[in-house]
């Protein structure tokens, strides 16, 4: 995803206010062996980019004065009650060094699973994103989680996820946390659901 930015020479509260009044958002790029670089971006373009999942979880190609470098979105500040981006931070990416980044989970097929179709279970998303470590070229935009085989009372854990090559998940000391759980519907499993689940289990034996 391409991002266009411009060099910024002035800093400080007053300069930032003038930038915002002119429809710009102040920002900074840091990291690597280079010194931090002050930048400014078109506010409207940035505001709409922030609505895109890809902007938050992928390596971005940033163009500054015709030169392109790879960066990651690291932080941004919004106005407390206005739709206004006050400031934004990017980190430089080195192709040869691993990065850590939060990546969204995309869940699919839960509505077709035995847990839902036969047992009318409730699928609970315990996690909606995970932090991964990988080289920049291996960073996935998302991780797909197929829930088509879920059954009642089953849990899907971090170790059950199918990861792209070169990608590992950081759990920061938590041992194999749950990603998805399935609980019975209010009042428990109905007779039809229980019979259907038993029949399905018998067919698989």
UniProtKB/TrEMBL annotation:
Write out the GO MF terms.
Answer: 5S rRNA binding; structural constituent of ribosome
The residues covered by the Large ribosomal subunit protein bL25 beta domain are 98-185
* Keyword vocabulary terms for this entry: Ribonucleoprotein, Ribosomal protein, RNA-binding, rRNA-binding
SUPFAM superfamilies on file: Ribosomal protein L25-like
Where are the stretches annotated Disordered? 182-205
Under Pfam families, the record lists: Ribosomal_L25p (PF01386), Ribosomal_TL5_C (PF14693)
Q: Where is the composition biased (Low complexity)?
A: 195-205
User: Is the keyword RNA-binding in the record?
Assistant: yes
Question: GO cellular component annotations, sorted alphabetically?
Answer: cytosolic large ribosomal subunit
Q: Which GO terms describe its biological process?
A: translation
- Domain named Large ribosomal subunit protein bL25 L25: residues: 5-90
NCBIfam families in UniProt? bL25_bact_ctc, PRK05618.1-2, PRK05618.1-5, PRK05943.1
Protein name (record): 50S ribosomal protein L25
In its UniProt entry, the species of origin is given as mine drainage metagenome
Q: Which gene encodes it?
A: rplY_14
């Amino acid at each position: 995803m391409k991002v266009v930015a411009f060099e910024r020479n002035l800093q400080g509260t007053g300069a930032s206010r003038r930038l915002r009044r002119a429809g710009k958002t102040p920002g900074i790029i840091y990291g690597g062996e280079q010194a931090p670089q002050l930048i400014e971006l078109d506010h409207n373009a940035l505001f709409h980019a922030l609505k895109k999942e890809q902007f938050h979880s992928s390596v971005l190609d940033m163009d500054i004065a015709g030169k392109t470098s790879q960066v990651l979105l690291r932080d941004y500040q919004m106005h407390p009650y206005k739709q206004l981006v006050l400031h934004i931070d990017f980190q430089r990416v080195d192709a040869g060094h691993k990065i850590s980044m939060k990546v969204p989970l995309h869940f699919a097929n839960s509505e077709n699973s035995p847990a839902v179709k036969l047992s009318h279970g409730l699928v609970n998303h315990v996690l909606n994103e995970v932090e991964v470590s990988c080289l920049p070229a291996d960073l996935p935009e998302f991780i797909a989680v197929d829930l088509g085989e879920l059954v009642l009372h089953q849990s899907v854990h971090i170790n059950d996820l199918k990861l792209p090559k070169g990608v590992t998940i950081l759990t920061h000391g938590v041992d194999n946390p749950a990603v998805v759980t399935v609980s019975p519907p209010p009042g428990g499993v109905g007779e039809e659901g229980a019979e259907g689940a038993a029949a399905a289990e018998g067919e698989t034996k």
